[in-house]
Amino acid sequence: MDPQNLTHVSEFILLGLSEDPELQPLLFGLFLSMYLLALLGNLLTILAVSSDLHLHTPMYFFLSNLSLADIGFTSVTIPKMLMDINTHHRIISYGNCLIQLSFFIFFGCMDNLLLGVMAYDRFVAICHPLHYPIIMNPNLCGLMVLVSFFLSLLDSQLHCLMVSQLTFCTEVEIPHFFCDPSQLLNLVCSSTTTKKILVYILGAIFGGVPVSAVLFSYTRIVFSILRVPSSRGKYKAFSTCGSHLSVVCLFYGTAIGVYLSSAVSPSLRSGAAATVMYSVVTPMLNPFIYSLRNRDIKKALQRLLSRPA
Length: 309
Prior knowledge:
Blueprint: E1 11-14, H1 24-51, H2 58-87, E2 91-93, H3 94-127, H4 132-135, H5 138-164, E3 173-174, H6 181-186, H7 193-206, H8 208-226, H9 231-264, H10 268-293, H11 295-306
Parallel strand pairs: 1-3
Antiparallel strand pairs: 1-2
Helix pairs in contact: 1-2, 1-10, 1-11, 2-3, 2-10, 3-5, 3-8, 3-9, 5-7, 8-9, 9-10, 10-11
Domain G-protein coupled receptors family 1 profile: 41-290
Subcellular location: Cell membrane; Membrane
GO molecular function: G protein-coupled receptor activity; olfactory receptor activity
């Protein structure tokens, strides 16, 4: 097929997770429930942290920003998917596809960077507890979130710029429920070797650095905990980072699972189904992991919900 110029590609077709008509009501109900749970859980976390003075600490400041990023992460893809299922209209315009891709990369990168920042916060709290108030001062915390914001914005714009330079064939069906950049690369007529290398470089920089920070922080944390003489002291030290460690394992575990499943399975739909884990399930579970494992969050939520209307 003769390639079209990019300006002539006006829309894409999102094939979704399944084209079976009998599965559509089940998928609609399932994803609507997960989306509402993600919104409710993350909004309650933000309200609890902002309304309780005891939670105005660096760890909960980062947690509230993570919840905000999770709300954006799910809102970029799920409402469009639900609308497509309900209306049986799976078309997305070229401009909206770029916007969706840009915001998906932005919030995904923001999640990744904030997890790295939170790992550093736990490292300072456990390995340097006496200097914690000095090191993790409000100015540094605000700066770290601001840097995460601008780095995420840079990553999303670089991806958006790269995709905007692609030349697509007449076949514009995306076997996914949103405009995933890796799927868009598969629709390109010309050679994508350079573009794929660029994607790997961006992934190594914006993904590898936070992962390295997490690994470094928790390596030092484990060595510090092992030096604690009493078992009670070890449990207390580990409990301060247990919730964050659970979220880290869930986010990175599911994200790595996506790439492994796409490498092992030739089915493009399997990659779309695996993406649901880190883009929908993880943001939904994050606030519940923190609330179930954190006594301060539980108390703040109880006070928030028991307030008279």
